[in-house]
Each structure stands twice: as C-alpha cells, then as structure tokens.
Amino acid sequence: MSTSDRVTIAGLRASERFSRPEVQEAYEQTRLRFELGEAVRLRREELGWSQAELGRRCGMPQSSIARFEHGGTQPTLTTLERLADALGLVLNVRLESPNAA
Asked: Which of 19, 28, 54, 69 sits at a 20 to 30 Å CA gap from 75?
C-alpha cells in the first residue's frame, strides 16, 4: 500500500462506511490506538524513515512498528516513551473530563 492509498482517521470519519453504527462502535473502542498509530506513522514519514529504521532507533522489530502504526497493539507507557524519544517528540499523557474542550 502506498502512502497515497492509506486511509487517514479524518478520511475514515468522512467516509460513508463510518456512518454505520457498528463501524462507529468499533472505532470508539480502539480510537486511541488508531490515533497514536497515525501520529507515529506521520512523524516517521516526516523524518523520511522506514518502519525498520524507527524500530532500530527505539529497539523494536519492524513488525512491532507496523502493528503499532495500524492500531493493532495496546502500547505500554514504556513503549510510548521509547517511540517518542526516537521520533524526537515529547510524550504527554492527560486524563480529562469528557466535557473538557
């Protein structure tokens, strides 16, 4: 799959498919994983790195990077810290009221 063929989170939300209740429910159950994966993928691509290069820089196999980017893992804080450090990012974790805007 090329970069131009990828569906972004915004693209998924705008699609006709997302209007189906079962798709919305499945997305909400995994939303955070998808958003984290997309953020890592976008930063990695911005840096011009392959998944293998990111894996090398944070001590993870390429297959783990691929699963993470596709929302297929439930990452630990340690994993998030390693990814953020390798990507030159700062990890911020917050708990907020659902009414916070």
From this structure: 19
Beta-carbon contacts of residue 17 (< 8 Å; ≥ 6 apart): 23
Per the domain annotation, does 38 fall within a domain?
A: yes
Which residues of the chain are modeled with pLDDT < 50? 1
Sign of CA dihedral 52, 79, 82, 33: positive
Torsion of CA 44, 70, 72, 32, to 10 degrees: 80
The tally of CA atoms less than 13 A away on the side-chain side of residue 7 is 11
pLDDT of residue 40: 97
Say whether 59 sits in a helix, a strand or coil.
coil
SS3 17: helix
Tally the domains of the chain: 1
Alpha-carbon torsion angle 56, 86, 36, 81, nearest 10: 110
**95 within some domain:** no
